[in-house]
Amino acid sequence: MIKPPLILGIETSCDETAAAIVADGSLVLSNVIYSQIDIHRSFGGVVPEIAARNHVGKIDFVVQKALDDAKVTLGDISAVAVTYGPGLVGALLVGVNFAKALAFGADLPLIAVNHLEGHIASAYLENADFKPPFVAMIVSGGHSHLVHVRDYGDYQVLGRTQDDAAGEAFDKVARVLGLPYPGGIEVDKLSKQGNPTAIAFPRAKLENNLNFSFSGLKSAVINYLNTAKMKDEIINPADIAASFQEAVVDVLTKNAMEACKITGCNRLAVVGGVACNSRLREALTKLCDENSIKLHIPKPIYCTDNAAMIAAAARHHFQTKSFATLNLNGNPSLTL
Ligand code: KG4
Ligand code: ZN
Fold it and tell me: Which end of the chain has fewer CB atoms < 10 Å from its terminal CB, N or C?
């Protein structure tokens, strides 16, 4: 028996055109993701204009496939939810305008979802027993946040990056090591052959808060490479990758444990693309075990950008009838 509401989620904030149908904020009936990575790879990163154009070309097909895969029609849907920020403005507008037209045409409520709230809600997917309060660590290509999720829709940001996001640092270090985009997974793979203690890269500890900073670490890796090149020294890319990754993991795990301590939460959800990192998963599993914290990291497919998490986040808005109007606009710098 499928529990209502049945929400159609749409996500186009960056380079994934995604649509999904989720029942009662947890049961995933379909999850369609068209990734543009192959298109952007040759540019070494996402090109906003190209991303927006490709969303336009794919959105119709992706939404229809989400309905077909779930074996439902628009008549079965309770509401249309869409990411309206933060993200690339042109990319966001494709999803927002498509969702507005769909909601208007099918006479369905429209729900505006913050992309970060979506990442947090990925913790509920296929995990109906997981409920607030908990600490969420969002680590993605665009964001690094520690959030106290006090209740549905009640978020206290405990810390955030002051410069680069964790995933951005992974991607930039991968690039200087000559690895393809997106680099996070490549650094993860290469690190398995390296020594994480080979190079003592800096760990930024910001005084008296849970904020992050990754740009100094990224510069340290670049300086290390430049110095080695000038001195004609042979470098070991696997050692560099492993030592860099260890520094990121150290900082993320320390702050996450501190956030649990400060809030008195014994549950931690780690979400966003960097939550796929194997060393981060391993280190957190051990630390959470030692500190009696229940760790939840969603399946990798729900960690990276997807629309199921947007539909999951929308359930609370549906229950409180927080519907958007057809004046909804994309907001590239939306905060939590
Ligand atoms: O959540 P996401 O799909 O998009 C944003 O909202 O930004 O995250 C993408 C980021 C990229 O920076 C990518 O390199 C990183 O997640 N990533 C990883 C791994 N898999 C993806 N970083 C480290 N290790 C991984 N295994
Ligand atoms: Zn994201």
Answer: N
